[in-house]
Amino acid sequence: MNILDQWPERWPLQPVPRAAWAEQQPTYPEAEPRIIRAALARAERRSGGNWYVFAGSRQVRADRPLGFHVAGTELVAWRDRSGLLQVGPGACPHLGAPLSEAAVHCGALVCRWHGMRLGERGRPGWKPLPSHDDGVLAWVRLDTAGDEQPLDEPVIAARPVARRSIDAVMTATGVCEPADVVANRLDPWHGSWFHPYSFTRLRVLETPPVDGAGPVEDRYLVEVTFRVAGRLGVPVLAEFTCPEARTVLMRIVSGEGAGSVVETHATPVGSTADGRPLTQVVEAVVATSGRTGFLLARNAATLLRPAMARVARRLWRDDLAYAERRYAVRTGQHARGARRP
Asked: Residue 315 contacts by C-beta under 8 Å, 6 or more apart in sequence?
């Protein structure tokens, strides 16, 4: 007798039926484009207050600056002597030197060209920008890029408490717009077809309405099994929502790891040399569990974070291809054979 036939139902890992990829139930009849379009349109109307995620909190250090771009604007981030996040323009106001190559001394940037010191107080021609560190992700408010009503703080969905969770952050960049990344996440039906190495037995139980007057909670409720190893997986019930225009939140509502979240943030970066848009995906996985073993695993969080990021990066290798193709098709560039930079 196969040991899987006597597998206890109370265990978090459950057997996954052996089935060929091509023998799955097709999901295209349910994956109606109008459902995705309507949910995306409503998400785009939700204000983020001109706040943009640009990195994981751990990527911004006190010993060297981090250079990055948001919507074509060159920026630099670092930490002051108190460890607080600081963000400012990425070019020195003197002669335009790259501050991503500056030194950090006593909590301020020191330009390597002529020694100009730039800190939280700024100086003529150079002013720090509003920034926020939520403990997992680093944000900047760039009012010159967004047309939303500025908010004092970014829109951040509830997460598991830090002392009972492990977080990891993954970043990737693709040739598309933020809407293409969000649309990818608002299509849960592609999961077990496009990512068979990670998902199986996926069933969408609830979808957002196609039409809705006034505020509508665009929630997808999805039953899915996350593959772990071989024929074993973890069945869960997950919901997908959009707290603001550039964010999709997946939360496990029941099953192993209930309360865990995956935040997918889409940030416009700039353009390629031929004018196509670049979007950065910053994805935060915040995992939690009430099991004793998980609390012990938190002691090895430093070792677990790279593994968690690798899993997310593998998924986004495929999902960025989806988002890039969506952008190419809707702009007609697929007919011209557009290539990645």
From this structure: 195, 198
Query: Tokens 């970014």 identify what position?
Result: 154
Phi, psi (rounded to 5 degrees) for 73:
-100, 125
Six-digit token string for 59: 């990527």
- Closest of 88, 41, 53 to residue 280, by C-alpha: 53
* Structure confidence at residue 341 (pLDDT): 47
Residues of the chain with pLDDT under 70: 1-19, 212-216, 229-231, 335-341
Written as six digits, the tokens of 292 are: 């004793």
Tokens 């301020």 sit on residue: 108
Q: CA 34 to CA 51: how far, in whole Å?
A: 28
Looking at residue 294, its pLDDT comes to: 79
Instruction: Give the type of residue at 213.
Output: A
The reply to whether CATH 1.10.150.120 applies to domain 52-141 is: no
Tokens 């309507």, residue?
38
User: Among candidates 228, 195, 189, which has minimal Cα distance to 15?
Assistant: 228
Nearest to 261 by CA among 285, 245, 277, 297: 285
Task: Give the CATH number of domain 15-46+156-332.
Answer: 3.30.530.20
Domain boundaries, the chain: 15-46+156-332, 52-141
- Give the residue among 259, 253, 248 at the shortest CA–CA distance from 282: 248
pTM equals 0.91
Residue from 109, 113, 159, 102 nearest 136 by CA = 159
Instruction: Give the HSE-up count for residue 69: Cα atoms under 13 Å, Cβ half-sphere.
Output: 15
What pLDDT was estimated at residue 15? 56
